[in-house]
Amino acid sequence: MGSLRCQSARAYSSRSLSNFLDFYGEPFLLNTLDSLAKGHYDEVSLLTDGTATGSEFISHLSQLSPNYTVDVVLDLHSDSAGARFSDRYYRINEITDAISSKKIQIRMLYQTSCFGSKMIPQWRKAGVGCINGSFGFNSFTFYSPQIFLEAWVNGRSFGASVDSAFRKESDILERYKVEYPMIKSLYGEDVPVQSRQIVSGDSASVFF
Q1: pTM of this prediction?
Q2: 177 is in which domain, residue-wise?
Q3: Considering only CA atoms, which of 30, 35, 24, 29 is closest in space to residue 1?
Q4: Domain count across the chain
Q5: d(Cα 19, Cα 179) in Å, to the nearest integer?
Q6: Which of 10, 76, 151, 206 gives 20 to 30 Å between its CA and that of 111?
Q7: What torsion, rounded to 10 degrees, do the Cα atoms 159, 60, 118, 91 define?
């Protein structure tokens, strides 16, 4: 598979900040992930808008788990205690308890959730093989999911794929701050520290 390429910011230097966010928002992310995944997975489920409810998430995992090795990419708003699906806010134990009770097996979970590291213990207790999570508020969400997935499906370990996503998005945003002056308002000096990724599980030995 050819490498994933990010559109040059220079080509969009006349766009407003809202247009920038729209262009690199959810449709862009879903289309890119779908394209990357379908070349490597037997089954791909994309949940968004009305389908991205907590119950649908668990239902899809339940259907997939008995027959497939399940990998999950989560792009949700969250705090240190839970995450917001499209229907409501769920405390993390509501999700992880359901996973445990239904004996759902998840090999890896990549997430962009803010404070994701705070919920790692519950995910691991539910049996997730390896998982990442940001130290605090995570601002590296535009490109990191697809950068991660490309590295992962092309043979890098989970930990190395997480690190690649973090470093490459950091580099991209530093360049964008020069060509998109309004981007500076979104990314203060503490962004790399807050967005730093914590990895748990057998991250060095788990490969696609």
Answers
A1: 0.85
A2: 9-201
A3: 35
A4: 1
A5: 15
A6: 10
A7: 180
| CA separation for the pair 59, 98 (Å, rounded) | 10
pLDDT, one tens digit per residue, over 24-77 is 567 778 888 999 998 899 999 999 888 999 999 999 999 999 899 999 999 999
Q: Please report, rounded to a whole number, the percentage of residues in the chain having pLDDT higher than 90.
A: 64
Mark 94-119 as b/e (b = at least 16 C-beta within 10 Å): ebbebbeeeebbbbbbbbbbbbbbbb
208 lies in some domain: no
What radius of gyration, in Å, describes the C-alpha atoms of the chain?
17
In a domain, 3, yes or no: no
pLDDT recorded at residue 176? 76
4-9 long-range contacts (CB < 8 A, ≥24 apart) are 4/32, 4/36, 4/146, 4/147, 4/150, 6/143, 6/172, 9/175, 9/176, 9/179, 9/180
The type of residue at 49 is D
Contacts with 102 (C-beta within 8 Å, 6 or more apart), sequence order: 58, 61, 62, 65
